[in-house]
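TA notes, week 10

Several of you asked for a full example with nothing omitted. So below is the full record: structure tokens for the whole chain, then the designed sequence directly under it. When grading your own attempts, check the secondary structure regions first.
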């Protein structure tokens, strides 16, 4: 099926078919109203996609576009506890649809794998009224308050699919999320940050015939592969430091797991190492302890582990993939900076949380449009592309009910993207498309940024 029709069909399913059913299930709709649930969700989701700072008056104007001429007050009155459950349930239904680009990214390095799966999380602070549902981590800062929710995301960089989005309490540890070991496809590559580092998870990934590239947790036991005797990592690195910048060795990690893999260490420039040590000492001072000599020494290195063979991934390519993990951080930055996921004009708790779920639903729809218009072109800036989609949000709203009309809208989006969203090459701090095109040139230099 043509990609543009796929997005239109999904929007019809969510907005026109599932919204009324979800409204009844959650008790959001109790009686007939001038503003039906399908009209309300279209007005709020698409209105906030077009302008995340939309006022109630602006949302009422969007409602009028879908034949619901109601007042701003009528919109405001709909943001209740049931509205929160209404938007949350619609969001959960939307993420069940794993939409992918028709063609994978045009990069040979990525296409060595069945998927290139990035996983990370982002936390949204909530009003304290939601502490019973979404406990935060405590403390006095906004991100560690009484109430917060966490979105766990898995993204396939190859075809762009949002493999999974989970809603969790803000206090839940990344390492313990069940998403860690779900749906591991043979031949896929998994990239996660140190917050997810778990030897049992890495063993599961390897056991499923998949691959991982990860930074090494500095508390992990490292054993020589030949003898399985403990290896003093700092001592070993210090002896080899003057010979070369990049060091590789076959090892086993974990005193009990003894997971066999390649260890790759890249020495960072002295200025970066010094900056790391300053940051480490500052954190230690704040928490009342003295950093160990071992931790200070390891500031000189980026240390990676992978179960991919040297024939499958060179040292430079391992470093490039470690850098590509930041692509999911850019997604979160877009969600919060451009989509303003963590901000609301309102002080009313139920409107705030309703908007969180509604905005994320809109961002998912935006992502679907990008998948069917430009994902395979790795030189497209997704942040710039997303602005184009937001500018077309009202056109999308006006045409999604008809396949031919929506195909015309998608053509408008593609033409605008071709002009506005193409990335240029950078001499310093190479972009993602430069890394995958020339890993032997940029690989080791890109490790300086990690």
């Amino acid at each position: 099926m043509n990609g543009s029709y796929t997005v239109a069909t999904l929007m019809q399913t969510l907005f026109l078919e599932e919204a009324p059913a979800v409204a009844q299930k959650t008790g959001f709709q109790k009686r007939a109203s001038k503003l039906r649930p399908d009209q309300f969700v279209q007005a709020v989701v698409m209105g906030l996609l077009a302008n995340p700072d939309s006022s109630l008056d602006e949302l009422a104007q969007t409602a009028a576009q879908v034949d619901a001429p109601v007042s701003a007050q009528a919109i405001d009155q709909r943001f209740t506890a049931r509205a929160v459950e209404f938007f949350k349930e619609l969001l959960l239904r939307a993420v069940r649809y794993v939409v992918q680009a028709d063609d994978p990214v045009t990069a040979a390095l990525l296409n060595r794998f069945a998927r290139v799966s990035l996983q990370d999380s982002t936390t949204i602070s909530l009003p304290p009224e939601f502490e019973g549902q979404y406990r935060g981590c405590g403390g006095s800062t906004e991100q560690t308050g009484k109430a917060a929710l966490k979105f766990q995301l898995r993204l396939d960089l190859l075809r762009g699919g949002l493999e999974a989005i989970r809603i969790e309490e803000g206090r839940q540890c990344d390492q313990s999320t069940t998403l860690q070991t779900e749906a591991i496809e043979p031949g896929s590559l998994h990239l996660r940050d140190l917050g997810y580092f778990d030897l049992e998870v890495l063993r599961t990934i390897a056991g499923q015939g998949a691959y991982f590239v990860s930074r090494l947790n500095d508390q992990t036991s490292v054993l020589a592969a030949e003898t399985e005797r403990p290896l003093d990592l700092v001592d070993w690195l210090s002896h080899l430091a003057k010979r070369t910048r990049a060091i590789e060795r076959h090892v086993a990690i974990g005193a009990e797991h003894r997971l066999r893999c390649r260890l790759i260490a890249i020495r960072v420039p002295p200025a970066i190492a010094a900056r790391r040590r300053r940051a480490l000492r500052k954190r230690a001072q704040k928490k009342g302890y003295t950093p160990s000599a071992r931790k200070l020494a390891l500031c000189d290195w980026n240390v990676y582990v992978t179960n991919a063979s040297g024939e499958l991934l060179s040292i430079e390519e391992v470093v490039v993939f470690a850098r590509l993990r930041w692509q999911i951080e850019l997604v979160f930055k877009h969600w919060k900076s451009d989509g303003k996921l963590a901000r609301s004009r309102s002080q009313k708790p139920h409107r705030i949380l309703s908007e969180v779920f509604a905005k994320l639903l809109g961002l998912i729809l935006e992502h679907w449009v990008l998948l069917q218009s430009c994902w395979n072109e790795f030189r497209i800036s997704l942040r710039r592309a997303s602005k184009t989609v937001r500018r077309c949000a009202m056109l999308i709203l006006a045409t999604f009910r008809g396949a031919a009309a929506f195909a015309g809208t998608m053509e408008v989006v593609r033409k605008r993207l071709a002009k506005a969203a193409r990335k240029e090459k950078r001499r310093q701090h190479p972009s993602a498309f430069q890394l995958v095109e020339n890993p032997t040139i940029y690989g080791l230099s890109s490790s300086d940024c990690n």
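The mean pLDDT is 88. Use that as a sanity check on your answer.
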